[in-house]
What we know:
The chain is an alpha/beta fold. Helix content is 37%, strand content 17%. The protein contains 4 helices and 4 strands. A 4-stranded parallel beta sheet has the order 2-1-3-4. The longest helix has 13 residues, at 18-30.
Amino acid sequence: MSILALKNRTVVVVENDTFTRETVEKLLSELGASKIVQAASGEDAMTLGATGGNVDLMISEIGLPGMSGLDLLKSIRMGQSGLDRATPFVVLTSYSRRSLVDLALNLDV
């Protein structure tokens, strides 16, 4: 998906830190995204699929309390979230451990 094609797409930002979540939303808005949904946890993001929400792109922190961003990604890829298994997923994190990066890559991040 081209960043230029965000105008009529639903982008979900999953981040437990309010400042970071709102900063990412502002940047996405400046890039032309018009439908941005914020979720403070992996569990909140999961409810989007349960309620039949359409998600075109998900951006998530890895180190979320409770359900981590990688657990969220895994549940989407395994078809357990109600969201399209091929939903584009971007990891937003300061973690640099190779094992986490490899796991995210194996889950088609």
